[in-house]
Specification:
2 domains, elongated
């Protein structure tokens, strides 16, 4: 019975992690460029009482054996980089990536970070920065006398002044990874490179399978609230079933104790 209690407790812990992951997904339903998480589970070790294929008699073997599992655990979490909806904002520097790719920015410690959040701004020097003030790695500056700014689908940033209707400030490049799910989520909508993600490859927007850029749009979170609520209900029911298993195991132990008395 004690083994049943421990086995059920592993199931409760696994479902608790599932609920925490779903809660984070739902909390970020309105976070620009957010990518939802999914958990993967695996069974724990099995105790073998009789190995499959072991000899029962001289000329007969056991076809299935007898093995009892000891529970489950969370094996990994995976980011889903499915495209989120693009919504128009009309922001002068807002951009959304339609397809694969990340914006590359300079982090606070000089490191390179990557994001799908295209809510860009101008800093005091006219350079394009993220909402947190981190500059794009492309180092694009829009002068003070710019009357309007247009960002093309290939990332080309052009602007008009009173004296010149067409000027080029630079080009926003996108970065791709062989395995984006292997990126390290750093919070604040940023990711960093890892050995699992592979090395970054910079491309012009629209080149070699890289996504294109839409000016005046932002990418919404790819979280589907209905799907998350369904999974939340399933996790709750699974948690309840595991807790019920503990209650049954406890009741059986009580019955044994009463028989001894």
């Amino acid at each position: 019975m004690i083994r049943a209690l421990r086995t059920a407790s592993t199931g409760m812990q696994a479902q608790q992690r599932q609920v925490e992951t779903i809660a984070n997904n739902i909390a970020n339903v309105n976070t620009t460029g957010f990518k939802k998480n999914r958990l993967a589970f695996r069974s724990l070790l099995y105790q073998t009482y009789k190995a499959p294929g072991s000899n029962v008699t001289k000329d007969q073997i056991d076809p299935t054996g007898l093995q009892v599992g000891t529970g489950a655990e969370v094996s990994s979490s995976t980011k889903s980089f499915m495209q989120g909806d693009l919504v128009p904002t009309g922001g002068a520097f807002d951009i959304a990536i339609k397809g694969e790719g990340f914006l590359s920015v300079e982090g606070p410690a000089g490191e390179t970070l990557y994001t799908r959040d295209g809510a860009l701004r101008k800093d005091a020097e006219g350079m394009l920065v993220t909402a947190d003030g981190y500059r794009l790695s492309d180092q694009i500056t829009v002068p003070e006398d710019a009357l309007s700014v247009v960002i093309g689908s290939d990332g080309t940033v052009s602007y008009a002044t009173a004296n010149s209707p067409s000027n080029i400030a630079g080009q926003i490049t996108l970065t791709r990874f062989a395995n984006p799910a292997g990126l390290d989520a750093r919070g604040d909508n940023f990711y960093s490179e890892t050995a699992s993600s592979g090395s970054p490859t910079e491309e012009s927007a629209g080149a070699n399978g890289t996504g294109t850029i839409k000016h005046g749009y932002l990418e919404r979170s790819n979280v589907q609230v209905v799907d998350e609520l369904i999974e939340l209900i399933q996790a709750q029911r699974n948690y309840e079933l595991n807790s019920r298993t503990i209650q049954v195991g406890d009741e059986m132990m009580q019955q044994v104790n009463q028989m001894v008395r």
